[in-house]
Amino acid sequence: MENNLASHGRWTGKQFVVLAGIWFAFLISFITRLSWATIMPSAIDSLHFTVQQGSNYLTAFYIGYAITVLPGGMLADKFGYKKLLLAAVLGNLVVMGAMVFMQGYWDGLVLRFVLGLVSGPDLSACLGIITEWFDGKKRATATGIFNTCTSFGLTVINLYAPSVMVHYGWRAALGVTALFPLAALIFAWFALKGTPPFPQQFGVKESDGKVETESSMQRLRKAINNRSVWMLAITGLFATGAKWGVTNWANLFMVKNLKFSLVTAGSAMAIFGITSVISMVVAGWISDHSKWSRHVWAAIFMAIFTPTIIGFALTPHGNTALLYFWTGAMGVGAFMFSTITNNLSVEVAPADQRGTVSGFINVFNQVGSFLAPILLGQILASSGSYVASYLIISVFPIIAVVALLFVRESDAQKNE
């Protein structure tokens, strides 16, 4: 009966529990990675670091993360999505606990790098678990709800860390942060118990009924011979790069170029966060309840991004109402498509390659996220114009839309 309800009709109670488990697990990944940015002003003074040294801690995480997103996905295909997710959460717990006691620059830098390494498998594992528990008619909605934890993580860390730092110091703030992966590990352990209705496949079923197990490298070779995988990788490179490029620069642009106050810029980004969360859930629901292919919806949602970047860049000085409108619209454009592209990263893959494929695509997402802010800085340095920087990067989503038009979901997965 449970499996039947999982395939048709309403969600089961177990599906809600599973989704809560992976949502919490991935949320803590964002909390731990963002923790250093929040406590950095206090920590670098205490440890006598330069601002550049403190910034290196941010970079160290993303280098480690980029290194393991693909191997992490491959390991998830080999050993299981649940095992890799729990291992990633445990790794976060150990590293964050160790950071409370760091004494110098190098031990902290190594720990941030290791935090990135252990976090690499988390997204592939979570997306894989969604395919185990949700059929094709509910999967995008589940992915949209799951994606909201990325925006929520920034809110959570800012709710407690500054207050804890003021009263007890930055080490205490890191200690409190270490409690999140502990709680997530316990909760996810129990939430993910049970047999899913669409269990992970560790091999390929041949025509004679035998299951042929492939090596991790065989899976990888098959993954990179898939045109849709490459198109999604290109999409991630340009669209995800544009998303985090404009997001990371938004406050700076509003304060330095548009001359709004820090408070107004913060309010605008709060609206940005709210619209991004709502749009990700709406995108999943639309995709699940439409006869149109997911890649078509992803292209439509992504096409919204370019005009919102342009509108935001051309906001008149002093017009707060338009600032709030375009910032909110840009939240929709920047995040709405990600529900569908995340979903596609596992749906274009054969059942035994989902972790490998999502990990491969996520490598390009991370490269885009890393390079886009650098590109914006280079354009600003050469042109002297914030607006020109934004207008140039507004072309990126258009390139991603073209790439999406060449994505094809397999008939087998569309009929799941």
UniProtKB/TrEMBL annotation:
CC annotations in GO: plasma membrane
Residue ranges that the Swiss-Prot or TrEMBL entry lists as coiled coil: none
Principal subcellular localization: membrane
UniProt-annotated location(s): Cell membrane
A molecular-function term among this protein's GO annotations: glucose 6-phosphate:phosphate antiporter activity
Occurrences of domain Major facilitator superfamily (MFS) profile (ranges): 18-412
Protein name: Major facilitator superfamily protein
One annotated GO biological process: phosphate ion transmembrane transport
Membrane topology qualifier: Multi-pass membrane protein
Superkingdom of origin organism: Bacteria
Parts of the chain that traverse the membrane: 16-37, 57-77, 84-103, 109-130, 142-161, 173-192, 229-246, 258-284, 296-315, 321-340, 360-381, 387-407
Cited PANTHER family: GLUCOSE-6-PHOSPHATE EXCHANGER SLC37A4 (PTHR43826)
This protein's record includes keyword Cell wall biogenesis/degradation: no
Keywords: Membrane, Transmembrane, Transmembrane helix, Transport
PROSITE patterns (alphabetical): MFS
Organism name: Furfurilactobacillus rossiae DSM 15814
